[in-house]
Inverse folding.
């Protein structure tokens, strides 16, 4: 029977569509950052202002502009929707995969598709590719820059070095000066450990510096000219103070990013760890270990830098996910005939079963806030164990050459189940879109909304979904004088009624999934 191989580009396109784009709108914006970033882009588009980000009509200078520009373009083409706010990350993740594929095509052609597809289904990449955030734009641009630099080191073409400087500038526009700083540290340490300072010196290329300045500096100059407080707010507060103090209340232990990295590499985490350990043990044995040293330094510098930071969030170390998968692809390229040990097969199979089981019970955990052991849970466990055993048998039979399938299959199953079964519960319990829809049904008249002791995430979500620039808070003495709607934490009617004596208050209904109540307040 004649076989028709699927072209690589078609597989890449299909994986991007499934892992990054499929059911992108199955749940609304969640957390504080997604709705804030989406709203900032909307306000910039409404004002036709590509320089100054604003939130609630006031300058909001915490982040650079790259994501906002991308979201503005998405809004312009597709309209203002929550899924449109996530398209920049979808696009950036897809470009990242193309860059990784190109890199592996040059340095590890036999496993170019394996490495790229394993990166596509890594939990960290999938999670942030489906989020309206700055983390994926930074990870994509920084990764492309570092891959281009290593390609320049290997082949010595100025085109690669130009790509390095251009994308490093874009990375600075994505998240700030942390990108060129990390790149400089990685390259300097690489040159030091290779005992060849020419590596670092030759990378300092005047045309590249000029290109970096042309791409990366104009926005910083213009936003500073228009907003004199930009340097203080962005550089001093949201870069230096965020790194050196806990002023933004994200404290975590020093070792926080070790489990975060493991979760980010899932489902290939066990194989990535093995590849890192082998690369460290083999360092210095062969000249070809330059790539391994470069990738290990890349991971180590990113993780160590943000581990020192007093403010920690999971997305900070997203740029360290691609080099881990590249190390794995390199290890597979060198030892494609080797069979994994039984303990590694067992750990990967168990991890695959845990992923599938978690997806199957996600809905019940979100809605009930606990896991009850019943028939559904038992069936879910048996299905998960069956998937894990199947993956283990397949991996044992095919050996290292089957790692790609053994990681991709549980990832596909997990994401498909999570989005089909768990996404509606995620939308109902965590997203302001469900709150806004419930409020619109109970109060069709478009009135301003105020809140009472709700989470800040709910406030920002209402701001985006109601397209209301400012959400007054009763507890801060901001009760509106005109008629309006109130979204309050359940049981607080008497408390906020004291702030508006003599005014009409009608109970409209509640939203138990997020412990909220709705009220109408007259003039």
């Amino acid at each position: 029977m004649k076989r028709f191989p699927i072209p690589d580009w078609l597989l890449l396109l299909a994986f991007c569509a499934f892992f990054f784009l499929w059911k992108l709108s199955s749940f609304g914006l969640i957390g504080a950052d997604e709705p804030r970033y989406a709203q900032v882009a909307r306000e910039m588009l409404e004002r036709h202002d590509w320089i100054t980000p604003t939130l609630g009509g006031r300058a909001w200078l915490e982040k650079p502009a790259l994501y906002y520009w991308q979201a503005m373009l998405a809004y312009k083409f597709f309209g203002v929707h929550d899924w449109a706010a996530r398209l920049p990350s979808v696009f950036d993740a897809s470009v990242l995969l193309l860059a990784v594929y190109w890199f592996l095509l040059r340095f590890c052609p036999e496993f170019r598709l394996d490495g790229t597809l394993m990166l596509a289904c890594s939990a960290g990449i999938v999670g942030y590719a489906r989020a309206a955030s700055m983390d994926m734009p930074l990870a994509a641009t920084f990764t492309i820059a570092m891959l281009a630099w290593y390609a320049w080191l290997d082949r010595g073409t100025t085109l690669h070095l130009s790509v390095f400087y251009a994308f490093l500038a874009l990375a600075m526009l994505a998240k700030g000066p942390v990108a060129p700083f990390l790149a400089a540290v990685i390259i300097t340490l690489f040159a030091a450990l290779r005992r060849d300072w020419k590596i670092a010196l030759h990378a300092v290329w005047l045309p590249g510096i000029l290109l970096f300045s042309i791409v990366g500096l104009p926005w910083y100059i213009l936003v500073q000219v228009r907003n004199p407080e930009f340097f203080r707010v962005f550089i001093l507060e949201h870069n230096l103070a965020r790194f050196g103090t806990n002023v933004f209340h994200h404290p975590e232990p020093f070792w926080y990013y070790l489990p975060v990295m493991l979760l980010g590499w899932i489902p290939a985490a066990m194989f990535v760890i093995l590849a890192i350990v082998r690369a460290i043990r083999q360092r210095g044995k062969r000249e070809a270990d330059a790539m391994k040293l470069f990738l290990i330094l890349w991971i180590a510098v990113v993780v160590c830098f943000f581990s020192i930071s007093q403010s920690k969030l999971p997305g900070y170390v997203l740029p360290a996910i691609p080099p881990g998968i590249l190390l794995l692809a390199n290890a597979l390229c060198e030892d494609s005939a080797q069979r994994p040990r039984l303990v590694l097969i067992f750990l990967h199979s168990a991890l695959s079963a845990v992923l599938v089981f978690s997806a199957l019970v996600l809905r019940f955990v979100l809605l009930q806030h606990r896991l009850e052991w019943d028939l559904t849970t038992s069936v879910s466990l048996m299905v998960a164990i069956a998937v894990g055993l199947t993956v283990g048998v397949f991996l044992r039979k095919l050996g290292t050459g089957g790692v790609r399938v053994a990681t991709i299959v549980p990832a596909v199953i997990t994401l498909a189940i999570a989005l089909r079964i768990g996404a509606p519960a995620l939308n109902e319990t965590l997203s302001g879109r469900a709150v806004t829809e419930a409020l619109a049904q109970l109060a069709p008249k478009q009135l301003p909304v105020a809140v009472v002791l709700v989470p800040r995430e709910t406030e920002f979500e209402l701001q985006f979904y109601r397209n209301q620039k400012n959400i007054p808070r009763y507890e801060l003495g901001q009760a509106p004088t005109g008629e309006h709607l109130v979204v309050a934490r359940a049981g607080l009617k008497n408390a906020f009624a004291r702030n508006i004596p003599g005014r009409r208050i009608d109970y409209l209904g509640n939203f138990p999934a997020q412990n909220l109540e709705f009220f109408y307040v007259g003039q």
User: Anything to note?
Assistant: The chain has three domains: 22-334, 342-430, 432-521. The chain has a mean pLDDT of 90. Residues 22-334 form one domain.
